[in-house]
Design goal:
mainly alpha, 10 helices
Length: 235
């Protein structure tokens, strides 16, 4: 199992690093994360458990925001500010940090997920970047992303889908995770190819979520989605 490397763990007395996200901004973002993850309405019985889960997930995200890898920090910050569910952001990171997946499984054990599956290797027009063994792991990862997102398909559609396609920060963070995964397996691929695969993966997840929301009768009318996109553009 892959552990979070030391460079992703903030030292207690570490000085502020130059550039990237300031300490004040990181602290403010951590508070925004806690508020964002607490927005979902729950009954009184689940309230304490939900609050504990939200705080736990926010703390994990905060570790990555404080990372010296400013690329990752900024992409995570952008996704959180767009209200992409924290569980999805962590799910993206879990490709290379397996302990995050174990935490997600425990934290989301009481959420009702769909029985449907997303198996990328069975999809048509699949970009060929991986060996069979690597593709098996990518399949597992993609299916976990879809399964976790299935508990709130409309929220994921509204925050990850745009009129022009998949949210670009989501594509970029997914691409960096896949690039790191390939490098760990001594595979070098052009980043443009990786971005193409990332877009393919996220489009597949969003299509499945769209179909799921449609089946459940909770898919909002198109004009509501257009208004939401306009609101996001004006922020």
């Amino acid at each position: 199992m892959s552990d979070i490397p030391e460079q992703h763990l903030p030292a207690e007395d570490a000085p502020e690093t130059g550039g990237g996200v300031s300490e004040a901004a990181r602290e403010q973002l951590a508070e925004e994360i806690r508020k964002a993850t607490a927005q979902q309405k729950r009954d009184v019985k689940d309230e304490k458990r939900a609050k504990k889960k939200d705080n736990k997930l926010a703390d994990i995200i905060h570790v990555f925001i404080r990372s010296e890898d400013n690329r990752m920090s900024l992409l995570i910050a952008r996704l959180i500010r767009r209200n992409v569910p924290v569980t999805f952001v962590l799910g993206l990171l879990s490709l290379n940090y397996e302990e995050i997946n174990e935490i997600l499984e425990k934290q989301m054990s009481f959420e009702e997920k769909t029985s449907k599956e997303l198996i990328l290797s069975k999809e048509e027009n699949l970009p060929q970047l991986f060996s069979d063994e690597a593709m098996r792991k990518i399949d597992e990862w993609g299916n976990r992303l879809f399964q976790n997102a299935s508990v709130s398909p409309v929220k994921h559609l509204r925050t990850l889908a745009q009129a022009t396609g998949v949210e670009i920060s989501a594509i970029q963070l997914t691409s960096f995770m896949i690039q790191e995964f390939l490098e760990k397996n001594d595979v070098k691929k052009d980043f443009t190819e990786i971005q193409g695969f990332s877009n393919f993966l996220l489009q597949g997840i969003l299509k499945k979520l769209h179909d799921l929301a449609d089946e459940q009768g909770i898919l909002p009318p198109p004009e509501m989605d257009e208004e939401k996109d306009n609101d996001d553009d004006n922020e």
